[in-house]
Amino acid sequence: MKPKTLIIGSNGKTGSRIVSxxxxxxxxxxxxxxxxxxxxxWEKPEGWQEVVKEINQVxxxxxxxxxxxxxxxxxxxxxxxxxxxxxxRIFLLSGRGEPEAxxxxxxxxxxxxxxxxxxxxxxxxxxxxxxxxxxxTEGRVxxxxxEAREPFVxxxxxxxxxxxxxTTDNHKxxxxxxxxxxxxxxxxxxxxIAEVTNQTISFEELPLDDYxxxxxxxxxxxxxxxxxxxxFRTVLDGRNESVVNDxxxxxxxxxxxxxxxxxxxxxSGIWKIRERVS
Length: 278
Hints:
Layout: E1 5-8, H1 13-24, E2 29-32, H2 48-52, E3 57-60, H3 71-84, E4 89-95, H4 99-109, E5 114-120, H5 133-138, E6 140-144, H6 155-167, E7 174-178, H7 186-197, E8 202-206, H8 208-217, H9 222-235, H10 246-251, H11 258-266
Parallel strand pairs: 1-2, 1-3, 3-4, 4-5, 5-7, 6-8
């Protein structure tokens, strides 16, 4: 019998892709989100028992990020609910270079349940499905000054491994550190997007404090400002400036590089600069 999987974060970048793959392969899936029935809400642990009931395995994508102070207690509570409900295996999407994320990983690893951990670099799709898309389509990008380069990972590659982990025993009790095949600076990212779309995209770097002040003036909430500060001060301080071959070995092929992703994405028209209304 195929295992029934709860995908927590089923509307997110990874969760939605994994749900699609499982559905296409005929695996039973329960959606874990505030819009699903029963509802899963990270702020309402009293409802988790009903969501986890009769589930064989759980994929966890924590929101907003495992770096936030509330993540450890939430993961501990969720793991306890999984233990009580005889869940067999837990899959955790984690982040590279985050001590808080590593603490959450240890909770999963020490749970007594089977586990798989996907410790990921920044997603390539952050530039086409995430926080930077609007700036690109405006033709003007403001960005914190960052010296470190990042080994961006393709979500389709990551989710291919996640699907294999969920549907076979080949990845049981394994931790994968997931990167793309190269290091790319953020300046190179936006230059490449401009090149493959044949558009002019201005790129202005600001000191991080000035960038955060700009975001605050735009009305972004304090939790977003905190997380942005953490990511750029801590995660992007150079600690992750390395390429690891875990993903290549697991997939049996090279992961997608940034230029290939950019060329493919450009064809969709998602990066087309919007006409300004005067």
